[in-house]
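Would you be willing to look carefully at the protein I have copied below?

:::
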Amino acid sequence: MIKSKINEWKRYYKVSEAGDITRRYFVMNAFDGALTMLGVVIGAYISGILQPLPIISAAISGSIAMGISGISGAYMTEKAERTKKLKELERAMVTDLKNSLHHKSNQFATIFAALVDGLSPALAAMLVVSPFFFTTTALITIELAFIICIVITLITLTVLGIYLAKISDESMIKYGIQMLAVGMLTAVLCVVTTILLGGNTMMV
């Protein structure tokens, strides 16, 4: 039963050509989630917030917001686009395709793309702030958690760059360095912006 369902989903995935769009959603939104949470963490540290619970609360709330926004936005967008294409195909074939393979494949692709779009930034964001969960049990210090958080973000961005390189058959080193550079630039801009806005209590 389960194997049959998986094979059915694989068929829908192939017919709907969902691979390209979901890959873009995954990379783009995981990138957004990681960088957004990096900005939150750096801003908190520069502002002198050295308690893990406010950071964890902000991370969870932000992840939920990104997840819901991504799922609902992608679902509505994909549904509209695929409904339009299906209607065009119906007019061209002069037939009703409701409950057909194309119809079911489009439904599957819409839901699948929405889940990827919503879950990828949320999971990336939670991965970035994961070190702070260990500070609540005193396994690591809050200062070490900040450092590990930045390292995890940069590693995540590098891995995403390598993944893009494999898709495009380009240099993994080149793509990895480019994504890493964006992460480092983001970190610098977050520090400068927080200081300029007066949240530089750690510098006093």
About this structure: Residues 52-93 form the longest helix (42 residues).
